[in-house]
Amino acid sequence: AALDQTFLQSVLADDAIVTALLQKHALGSEVPASVALTLENSAQTTLNGEDITVDGSTGSVLVTPSILGGPSTVISADVQTSNGVIHVVDKVLALAALVPPPSPPPPAAP
Q1: pLDDT tens digit string along 8-46?
Q2: N or C: which end of the chain has fewer CB within 10 A?
């Protein structure tokens, strides 16, 4: 699935939202993959003050919420930088205001 281009352009045009999105992708502490893999549905507070949920119990590190719905998966872990470590994810993490609503359940059979 891809983001609607109108939605994407409106987000990119708003500096406050872009800043909040970037801060949603950063923690105030370093969490190496070896630690993330031990976490199970663990709430982690990001630099914008919102929580993400990190789950390494499946053998992959999954992070929610994402803009496209479902978890985001860490696809490259422990990338060292001058001020910490980066884990590359395959989906943009969502601000609480941008989390897609859950899909409605299918209609009950008669």
Answers
A1: 898 889 999 899 989 999 999 999 999 999 999 999 999
A2: C
Residues 6+ apart with CB under 8 A from 30: 84, 85
Q: Which residue has the tokens 């990001």?
A: 46
In a domain, 34, yes or no: yes
- Residue ranges making up the domain that contains 52: 5-98
Q: State the DSSP string of 39-66.
A: -SSEEEEBTTS-EEEEE-TTSS-EEE-B
CB atoms within 10 A of CB 22: 13
Residue 13 placed within a domain: yes
The whole model's pTM is what?
0.80
Residue 103 domain-assigned (yes or no): no
